[in-house]
Amino acid sequence: MSHSDEVSRVVHGFPHLDTVRASIAALYRRLSPDGVRRYGTSVTAADVLVDDADGLHLGAQRAARALVRHLRLPDARMVVGFRAMEHAAGVELTAGPEYFVELNDRFRTHRRDIGAALAHEITHVLLHRLGLSFPATAENEILTDVVTTYLGAGWLLLDAFRQDGVSSQKLGYLTPEEFGYVLAKRAEVFGEDPSPWFTSAVAYEAWVRGRAEAARDWRRPPLAGAGWAARRRARATGDGVFPCPVCGQRLRVAPERRLKARCGVCETVLECAP
pLDDT tens digits for 229-264? Predict the structure, then answer.
């Protein structure tokens, strides 16, 4: 997993949105809607807290065990070490059950973000075991960030985004706003409000922008929330194809009829209108 230490290097906006939506749809296909719903409660900050009382290595191991439980990897054992390295963290993907996670030496003193770094790497293990991946490395890393967030641990990655005007830290491959977008997608499905969880002001701002982008997905024609004028324009130019606002799967409906559309991937029933 990469990190950035310069303000100028932090990319903003939604450049990976197509891959993000494809990742959510792929997760639903692989786990099934019932499988996704098993992750109804997000990780808390206390679950992955590494404090001075634990000591660095014991605390990191405890946080890793908490994330293994959260991600439902019952027989996976994580061995956490620290070394000098270019990236924030890495994991050795093997047949298991023991996996070796390495964290950048800087986390020895930045302990509040150990849980965030571990969340991404342990999700790599989950995806490896599920056999879920994309062909390109960059897309696979985006998939990992999306799944981490959608299954309730990736808000930690967004909260690790901090800026003070001179330097910055950002973990993961999604932009801050894309993390906010996926978090909003999760919040819609599980009825969560992650707003109180953020300790980083810039992370909270990114969550708000991502939430606004996610809300726009519900206003695409022919969804009932799109408004009459937008639906009329779509009828004149479109073919009734639109992305599911929950998982991004492309759906087709007859634009001339009022109806409900049911997504075959996430099973969401959507209100449509002519």
Answer: 777 776 655 667 889 999 999 998 875 666 888 999
Closest to 162 measured CA to CA, from 2, 7, 9: 7
Cis before 243 (ω within 30):
no
**For the chain, how far is it from start to end, CA to CA, in angstroms?**
45
What's the token pair of residue 237?
A: 């130019």
Q: Quick one: DSSP state of residue 181?
A: H
Contact indicator for 65, 43 with CB cutoff of 8 Å = no
Find all residues with CB under 8 Å of 8, minimum gap 6, and list them: none
Copy the structure tokens of residue 138.
């960059």
- Whole-structure pTM value: 0.92
Q: Which amino acid is at 13?
A: G
Distances (CA, A) of 179 to 12, 92, 102, 161: 11, 25, 23, 10
State the maximum Cα–Cα separation within the chain, in Å, rounded to a whole number. 65
